[in-house]
Amino acid sequence: MHEWALAEAVIAATSSVLAGRDPSCLKSVSVLIGELQAIDRGIFDFALSSLWEEKPFRSASFTLRTEPAELSCRACGCGWGLEQSPGLTSANREAIHFLPEAAHAFIRCPSCGSPDYQVVRGRGVSIENIGILQSCL
Ligand SMILES: [Zn+2]
Question: Which of 6, 20, 53, 132 has the largest CB neighbor count within 10 A?
């Protein structure tokens, strides 16, 4: 499943950063999930917790944070987030969550009304921060 593959990628990235260090040096990992990323957060959390438990750095903590979407209009240059998108219902929001491409069907530039915009932020899953214990640096 998609969520498990993403969780495995987070584990792999964490392991490679730790390479050569004592696993107990890892303090915390912060994972950023784009607001427009199609992901079941519950499954992702479960997958990451399960994989995490098997690792030598399991005493470290991880947190999941949502990266708010940021959109930029190609016509007028206006930048905005989902909160500022006019007329976006919670049903639309749900649809966008499961199919980010659907965003273009529901979202228009709040400034000029154009449906032509790009997603600047809020897509994908990334590692925001890896905390290493001070004594290990
Ligand atoms: Zn615009």
Answer: 6
Residue range 91-123, pLDDT digits in tens: 888 888 777 778 888 899 999 999 899 999 998
- What residue type is assigned to position 27 of the chain? K
Beta bridge partners of 66: 33
**14 alpha carbon – ligand 1 mean position (Å):** 39
Residue 110 makes CB contacts below 8 A (sequence gap 6+) with: 78, 80, 84, 85, 86
Q: How far is the CA of 113 from the centre of ligand 1 (A)?
A: 6
* Separation of CA 133 and ligand 1 centre (Å): 46
Residue 124 DSSP class? S
CA of 62 to the centre of ligand 1 (A): 38
* Number of helices followed by number of strands (H, E) in the chain: 4, 6
Residue 70 is which amino acid? Answer: E
1-68+122-137 architecture in CATH? Answer: 2-Layer Sandwich (3.30)
- What pLDDT, in 10s, does the model give residues 6-32? 999 999 999 998 888 999 999 999 999
* Amino acid (1-letter code) at residue 42: G
